[in-house]
Amino acid sequence: MAEPAPLLADVRRTALIALTTNILSVAGPLWTFVGKFAVFRTANAGTAWSSLILLSVMTGFILVFYATLYGNRRPLQIPEHLRRLSLVSAIACGILLAFRLVTWAGWFSRSEVTSVLVTRKPTWGLGDIFVLLSFAGDIGVILLLIALSRQSEEDLSSEISVARSLTIAVKATVIMWGLWVGFNALKVVLTPYTYQLLQTYAPQLGGVAPSFARVLEDALRMFVSQACVFTAPYVVYKSLKRPANQFAEGLRSISSTTTT
User: N- to C-terminal Cα distance for the chain?
Assistant: First the structure.
């Protein structure tokens, strides 16, 4: 019996980890929506429901992809350039996670002066648990990307075919998440326009518009994080297409040699 692959090289186990952690990470947004449901029914109801539907759809696609990737027992043959893409995405996601951890940890080092003698520090709350769950979701994505980057390109002999459910799920996920990542890329390009809108309407609403650097930072962070999530289904999709393309090329070469 062959020894099991290390965790950081096992796509199935890391896919299961990504599936579990990302299911848990959805708890925070859902709890926020439920907690503010009474407000949503009277103010900004359309925007709130649209955000919830979008979150549910995008999360559902990526969770189905993780589940079908876990159910696939055939080793993946991933070309070197796709393995490098997975590794770069894992590093980028790790850097974003490190910044988020530093920002979150810095919150507890702050103190709020309530009087001359009393200083109150932020207390641990339910929101912090949801933040930790979102960190766990990011870690699951990073582990899967590292596992994909450590796969082989060799033609591994296996009698097990790629699960049809994975083929369907990965194609649908690539289409939906490709559109979503493209939308976030467009938001980065339109950052100057967004900043001008905030400068115009924030004072009318009694608020203060954020700086251009902050608006650009938020747009870039959103784009990079969503692109990192998109990388895994994209790499798997391109890897699944590769054997079929090679088979078609082989048939064409055989037919050309027989005709000559």
Answer: 47
Q: Under a CB-based contact definition with an 8 Å cutoff, are residues 88 and 82 in contact?
A: no
Q: What's the distance, CA 143 to chain centroid?
A: 12
H/E segment holding residue 96? helix 80-108
d(C-alpha 233, C-alpha 229), whole Å: 8
Q: Do 87 and 30 contact (CB within 8 A), yes or no?
A: no
Q: Which amino acid is at 208?
A: V
CA angle 216, 222, 226 (to 5 degrees): 150
* DSSP one-letter string for 127-192: HHHHHHHHHHHHHHHHHHHHHHHT---S----SPPPPHHHHHHHHHHHHHHHHHHHHHHHHHHTHH
Confidence of residue 7 (pLDDT cuts 50, 70, 90): confident
pTM exceeding the 0.85 threshold for the entire prediction: no
Domain coordinates of the chain in residue numbers? 7-255
Tokens standing for residue 150:
């450590």
Q: How confident is the model at residue 49 (pLDDT cuts 50, 70, 90)?
A: confident
User: What is the rounded distance in angstroms from the CA atom of residue 156 to the CA atom of residue 243?
Assistant: 12
Cβ count near 147 (within 10 Å): 26
